[in-house]
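Problem 3 from the worked examples.
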Amino acid sequence: MISSSITTEKELREEYDTLYKKEVVRDEDRAYAYFAKLAARYAGQSGAILDIACGGGFFLTQIEKYRKSGNFGLDISEEALRIARTNLRNSNIVIGSSERLSFTAGSFDFVSCLGSLEHFLSPERALNEMARVLKDGGKVFIMVPNLFWYKDLISVFIKGDRLPRNQHNEIFNSLGEWKKLLETNGFKIERTLKYNGISKSAFKQFLKDLLIPRNFSYHFIFICGKSEAKL
């Protein structure tokens, strides 16, 4: 389900430049800290990392606590990268399109794309590009939104509509649909996690982890390797 008529990279770039000038697109620092700790298990201290649609560099800021080199970020928005340059100390950032990555094949040991694949003009092309630049044996870390988030279901039941979002050109899928998209575009899913935000309260986080079923969670996190066809 796509909620925008944006069809070109120029339009998408202008959309995000405007958005970042009005309101910085980001999660809480504790969420990025969680993502970085999870990524560190798979990325290790060596090798190269690429964060696609890095935005203001908030994930990479946390990654820099674990690694002082080999960190790369890419985003389509120059306004987002202006913010990233003020946040990052040990990362290389470039402007570019996720569907046409400006890196040679097999450049990275770890590729992340957090809450952005759903906004791309061609998620299929972007996934194939991620597989291309990933080394054999490397890992991809992708987070995407759930069409059947329990809060949206409650909102539809009460008001007849989903909760509002702050971005356009957005795709929502079920867990099974996201899995199919990943598996048919270069990846073998190794682990699937549910994500419902990171609470300030450890007890509240415990309850969310315990009570919210994965199929009705806010987002899904997929840890993937290359499919055999891409090796």
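Problem 4, a separate protein:
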Amino acid sequence: MNSALYLHLLKTLCRVFWGPDLSLCQEILSGEFVKLIQDSAVYFRIDLSVVVQTVNCLADEYKDPEALRTDLSDGYIALFINDISGIPAPLYQSCYQKSNSRLMGPPAFDMKNRLKNHGLSISLPGNEPADHLCIELEYIFYLLNRGLSESNSESIREAVQFCGESMADWVHQFCERVIGDGRFVFYAVAAELLSVTVRSLAENTIFQQCT
């Protein structure tokens, strides 16, 4: 099992969905981000050639990482924070519940308890709900890194169960919204990568290979 690839994917997806930083933009322009997509395509045995082509076109369009970050930041705000017609794809699991789909729903309290049970806390400015996509991805990273480094199958099992029982459904909805919006190709690429990663974990692929 390519554990390093899973951990790299989770870290990179967190960086994307916390909002673009300059180093991420430099990796997009240098080809490092494309390399991650290509490695993922090989490992997951799926065709991501269109995704690779999209990122290469983006890299060709921008020569200055600062200009790329500015445009990605504008797209990030429009998709995930505030748009004229609402928020196309909120970053919180609570917003995807069939009933009472508001911030600080049951998923936020469940996630808060999960973190507490592991002695983890949220170190962010403000009062960020615990069911933010990136907090959930960081939680999975923590479990997998611990499980793989300590040969702790229980931590890996917990990561797999969390993906399948808690994340898979709402992340699928989230990715459909991002891709369906159609305005921001980079985030459509990132959503495809996110979908592939979570689906692989939810299907127990990593756990089956570790036991």
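Solution to problem 4. The chain has a mean pLDDT of 90. The radius of gyration is 17 Å.
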